[in-house]
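At this stage, I wrote out one protein, both as residues and as discrete backbone shape codes, and that material follows here.
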Amino acid sequence: MLFRRRRPEGFFDRLRTALWPRRSFGRSFQYFIKRVLRLTATPHAIAAGVAAGVFASWTPLLGFHFILAFAISYLLAGNMVAAALGTAFGNPLSFPFIWALTLKVGNMLIGIETGAHQKHVNLEALLRHLDISQLWEPVLKPMLIGAIPPGVVSGVAFYILTYWAVRAFQARRKSRLAERAGMRLQELAKASSERTADRTADRANRA
């Protein structure tokens, strides 16, 4: 296979790339913005899709962020590709902050104080019997509830920013395309007039 790696990429190589992209986070962020702006959809559809992906990233439902983002995007008449791109808000760098904040906010909303009165996870039951219910009360439930306020706030913020950016980008692109089309028409008109002049001159020479 052309351009194939001489040495297959191992687990630690993939892990390092996930934590620290080879392109650097700055270039990856620029690539993400270009992908969003170049989507073929209305500004609302793109902005709603990105907002849905951002909201889904706040939930602790790892492995289901895409499904949740698609469902929310469908309800908002958003773009599915934009929803998938929006889930990039949840990444190895942001997840620790997201999880800590949603757990704290969730406990505050439920009225649970972190400390002795909080239910602890039974790791033995969780690992031996795969009892996921051990995570529901102390972890998943408060994180799900705590994800709603920051998810809504960040989703609305990303919707506004994305809508403005996409509308401005599409307006500039339409202006450039119209300008190019006008220049092309002028070139065609000029070429047509030159051909007409040449034919007129040939007829005059023959006469």
